[in-house]
Write a structure and sequence with these properties.
Blueprint: E1 2-6, H1 10-22, E2 26-30, H2 33-42, E3 48-51, H3 60-68, E4 78-83, H4 88-97, E5 101-104, H5 109-118
Parallel strand pairs: 1-2, 1-3, 3-4, 4-5
């Protein structure tokens, strides 16, 4: 199982990569949506994207719209927003654009594991 972690904050990328590794996922990391699109081209077998909203170059919402606009990624991989955007309008906008779940920062490993289970992805390890 493979997870793409997209966040402009290095500490979040490292923390999520460690958590996902403990859950049995190989982590691929990107600093923004543009790098994430490149990573998806390089790793089309990604099972889940852990996606921040607010990033430079290309934000998470724009990445999500671009990803879901590609026929091969219309429903796969699962996308879990991991963000400080906690308002209901932002959550609904992301879900309408194709996000599968939403995690508010700060988060912990149990929360991540629970959201993975909610989208049908059990811990692989």
């Amino acid at each position: 199982m493979k997870a793409l972690i997209v966040d402009d904050a290095k500490v979040v990328r490292v923390t999520l990569a460690r958590m996902m590794g403990q859950l049995g996922y190989e982590a691929v990391k990107a600093e923004d949506g543009r790098q994430a699109l490149d990573a998806m081209a390089e790793h089309p077998d990604v099972d889940v994207v852990m996606l921040d909203w607010n990033m430079p170059v290309m934000n998470g919402y724009d990445f999500l719209v671009a990803l879901r606009g590609m026929a091969q990624h219309a429903t796969h991989p699962k996308v879990i927003m991991v963000t400080t955007e906690t308002g209901m309008p932002s959550m609904l906008k992301a879900l309408a654009a194709g996000a599968d779940e939403y995690i508010m920062k700060p988060f912990d490993q149990d929360m991540v594991a629970g959201k993975l289970a909610m989208v049908g992805l059990e811990a692989a390890g």
